[in-house]
Amino acid sequence: MNDTIGIDISKDTLDTYWLSKRKHKQFSNNRMGMRALTSWVREAEVSLIVFEATGIYHRLLEISLAEHDISFARVNPRQARRFAEGTGTLAKTDRVDAAMLARMGSLLELKADKPKSEKLHNLKGMETARQALIKDRTAARARLKTATFPLLRKQSNLRLRQIERDITQIDAAIETTITADKVLSQKAEILVSIPGIAKITAYAMLVEMPELGSMSGKQAASLAGLAPISRQSASR
Q: Which residues have C-beta within 8 Å of that of residue 22, sequence separation ≥ 6?
């Protein structure tokens, strides 16, 4: 099995677990902590660093590892949960999650990912904001249905119109960013050509899985957290 380090990421801290040494260590999730972490990881000389994709909180870690040519694998949170369930890991703390990610990288022999570009990070940020606006729109529509007082109905209508404008602006920005990139644009055209996949859906798929088109069906299913994982206990 490969020797790995699992990292559980939170807003302020990075909890790590070195598999072969069974050693936990915590670092601050900032530039100073990142310098200490990368120095420690390079000394450990493990084959792979494994962490969950956590949006903005893993961004600095990914950039720092890439700058130091340290191999890493981003794990879909759904895939990580399925692995934890399959191995009987019921407890959930930062230390336990870090150890689980280290075992996952070793047992499944995860392959190293390519660091995401600034463009992909920006697309992810816009897609996350869009999903939040969709939830806001649903809530605003629900309030409008139950509102009887004129002022509340007026405010709900104003809020809905603002949300629609915001969604339209984000959609335009996402489309502009994707169409300006030759590779992403070609992938989007292929996805849209598939019956049942609209442009917005295609863009969302590319934001979540930009590796589409360069991996097998099994690899794509694994990245999406849809690949089956056998339920067996993992050795520590």
A: 236
Helices (H) and strands (E) in the chain, counts: 9, 5
Spatial distance between the Cα atoms of 54 and 226, rounded to a whole number of angstroms: 18
Distance in angstroms (rounded) separating the CA atoms of residues 229 and 38:
31
Question: What pLDDT shows up at residue 71?
Answer: 93
The set of residues, in sequence order, having a beta carbon less than 8 Å from that of 14 and lying 6+ positions away, is 7, 8, 26, 27, 28, 29, 33, 37, 61
Beta-carbon contacts of residue 71 (< 8 Å; ≥ 6 apart):
47, 48, 49, 65, 112
User: What are phi and psi for residue 52, nearest 5 degrees?
Assistant: -80, 145
Buried b (16+ CB within 10 A) or exposed e, 145-154: eeeeeeeeee
CA pair distance 30, 86, nearest whole angstrom: 33
5 with 102: CB under 8 angstroms? yes
Please report which confidence band the pLDDT of residue 115 belongs to, taking 50, 70 and 90 as the band edges.
confident
pLDDT in tens, 27-60: 999 999 999 999 999 999 999 999 998 877 888 8
Task: Pick the closest to residue 34 from 81, 68, 73 (CA basis).
Answer: 68
Cα–chain-centroid distance for residue 164? Answer: 26
Residue 83 CB: number of other CB atoms within 10 A?
21
pTM score, two decimals? 0.59
Q: What are phi and psi of 29, to 5 degrees?
A: -85, 65
